[in-house]
Design a protein that fits this description.
11 helices; 8-stranded parallel sheet; about 20% helix; 30 strands; 6-stranded antiparallel sheet; TIM Barrel; single chain; Jelly Rolls; Immunoglobulin-like; alpha+beta
Length: about 600
């Protein structure tokens, strides 16, 4: 199987996959630093186990399948020689939870904080003679730290209520690439409101720039060149506005726009030149689409778009938050489409870039969460802010992402209803996300206790369609519900005046338990057979489809996840009823 590039938005042809078997060791006494576990060569300390990266040690597929350890050490020897004279070698760690230190051949090459977005290190200075180089990673992930953004990873020994088994250490791919010393090091695409308009922000790293440095950008659609141009590079950052002029924008504008029904992607080749010498070449892609909110509606490409989302926990029974393989990632996106949804809400975890690639490629809208901490402290707020900045920097170019979700159900801000500091934290991170990315709406605190943001998200797990119709059937009913109802036991609005005119999305509802067993959490209620399952699904989804007061919905949830047996699919991604019948209900074709 040919693996998808781990960074699809900025890829080069040659990269080295470092996943597979690594030496491994727990460090419960925190002795490894003092005892030199980071050393390589003849001084290397024996490691007593083997782990299969990128699977976390708590998972079955890792080969370790053991929980409760805070400090983890990894070691692997690999060929990491530069491909050519003057090239640099970059080591990429796609995700490691939570703090990581990295050594190469006994040289400390860098560290990183944040468990859900990766990092890259230039390790060239640490490379020894010959091809074989030893990489050591020390990961620290305190299982009980509630100030650390952890999402739905449980802090108790066994999963309880709606929290799951942990995903520690290296849990997404490790890879390396040999790159020119002067190179493209990052990019960001921002589509504009005018048809064909898009802005590229690119960073260039390396030697001191000379006046003859140029960046060539070539846009292609189905192999046909739409535009080609060269631009002078005068600094380490280049901002280039493009207007892709083509008659099809006038005659067939939808053909070139990105959306769920037609996810058009334009391929881009970027080449850095020094005179007529090719310095670096990379590939990317862009989807031309705009997102906005207006008069209670969610707009995609300037038109009202009623959201049909499903809650995506991105958890697999044998590998936890790490996807089992590339095929599983693509299949997950295909199942979302097959079930009749137009999108997902990525819930309390950060999507794999390959997953976002398939959402881009197949046309699945994404509301992007980031994992929550569960205490409100300066340290928790700092970690949450840092992780959000990393998420936006990495993922903002994906056309599939149409909203950022700053907080969920007041997690991390538990006293937000009464505490001005916590309210300011929600406003602050919501404002930060808007500042980092003004092109997308931000959901400030999804579920209840709305303080700030561009969308009001409401969580309501009533299992009576008549109640949903009464609460959300019309705009007036929605306004009354926001003002007076407490479907989750909490006030829905803390600042109703500031939310006037914003779209309201029923952003969690449903959650029908089916195929349950002893020990399953029954917070959502349950049915006992397929007929009852479909009848309740039809009742609840039909009520929301009938609403004229909502801008969309998000069904809970896509798959069973441990004790939460409320998925449309079981944990192995098998539908709990005829998938075509489910699709018709979700898509509203019965109305």
């Amino acid at each position: 199987m040919t693996r998808l590039h781990p960074r699809p938005l900025l890829s080069r042809e040659t990269w080295v996959d470092l996943d597979g078997d690594w030496e491994f060791r727990f460090d419960d006494d925190d002795a490894g630093l003092d005892d030199g576990w980071w050393r390589a060569g003849p001084e290397a300390v024996p490691f007593d186990r083997t782990i299969r990266v990128p699977f976390p040690p708590e998972s079955e597929l890792s080969g370790v399948h053991e929980d409760g350890h805070a400090i983890l050490w990894y070691r692997r020897t690999a060929d990491l020689a530069p491909a050519g004279p003057g090239d640099r070698v970059l080591l990429h760690v796609t995700a490691v939870d939570h703090h990581a230190d990295v050594w190469v051949n006994g040289v400390h090459v860098g560290a990183h904080d944040g468990g859900h977005v990766g990092f890259a290190l230039d390790i060239t200075h640490a490379l020894g003679d010959g091809a074989a180089q030893t990489v050591v990673v020390r990961a620290v992930d305190d299982p009980h730290d509630l100030e650390q953004p952890r999402g739905k990873q449980d802090w108790q020994e066994e999963p309880h209520v709606i929290w799951y088994r942990r995903t520690s250490g290296l849990w997404r791919g490790v890879w390396a690439e040999s790159v020119p010393a002067t190179r493209l090091d990052g990019l960001r695409w921002t589509p504009g409101a005018q048809p064909g308009a898009v802005t590229l922000d690119a960073t260039v790293t390396g030697a001191r720039l000379s006046p003859d440095r140029e960046l060539e950008v070539v846009f292609r659609l189905d192999g046909e060149v739409l535009a080609r141009s060269r631009h002078a590079v005068t600094g380490d950052r280049v901002t280039l506005p493009f207007l892709l002029s083509d008659a099809r924008f006038d005659t067939e504008p939808d053909r070139l726009l990105w959306g769920p029904d037609r996810p058009t992607l334009i391929d881009v080749e970027l080449t850095l030149w020094r005179g007529e010498q090719r310095v670096d070449t990379a590939r990317s892609y862009v989807g031309l689409r705009t997102v906005a909110v207006e008069d209670g509606r969610f707009l995609l490409n300037g038109r009202p778009c009623v959201l049909r989302l499903v809650l995506e926990q991105a958890y697999w029974p044998r590998s936890h938050l790490a996807a089992p393989d590339d095929d599983a990632i693509r299949r997950e996106v295909e199942l979302v489409k097959a079930l009749g949804f137009t999108g997902i809400r990525m819930h309390q975890t950060v999507a794999d870039p390959r997953f976002l690639h398939w959402c881009d490629r197949l046309g699945v809208l994404v509301w992007a969460d980031a994992p929550a901490a569960y205490r409100f402290t300066a340290r928790a707020l700092e970690a949450t802010t840092r992780e959000w900045m990393q998420v936006v920097a990495r993922d903002a170019s994906h056309p599939s992402i149409v909203a950022w979700v700053a907080f969920n159900e007041s997690w991390g801000v538990p006293d937000v209803a009464a505490d001005a500091s916590q309210q300011n934290a929600v406003r602050g991170i919501t404002g930060l996300l808007t500042a980092l990315d003004p092109s997308r709406p931000v959901v400030g605190n999804d579920g209840w206790e709305w303080v700030a943001g561009d969308v009001v998200g409401v969580h309501d797990y009533t299992h009576d369609g008549a109640v949903l119709r009464a609460r959300y059937g019309t705009r007036d009913a929605v306004a009354a519900t926001l003002a007076h109802e407490r479907p989750g036991g909490r006030r829905l609005m803390l600042d109703a005046d500031a939310a006037a005119g914003l779209p309201v999305v029923l952003s969690e509802f449903g959650g029908i338990g089916f195929h349950t067993s002893a020990g399953d959490w029954e917070g959502y209620g349950a049915v006992t057979d397929e007929e009852a399952f479909l009848a309740r699904l039809r009742d609840l989804v039909g009520a929301v489809h009938d609403s004229t007061g909502l801008a969309g919905f998000c069904w809970t949830q896509l798959t069973d996840t441990l004790q939460e047996t409320n998925g449309l699919l079981d944990e192995h991604r098998r539908p709990k009823a005829d998938i075509e019948l489910i699709r018709q209900i979700i898509a509203g074709e019965e109305h």
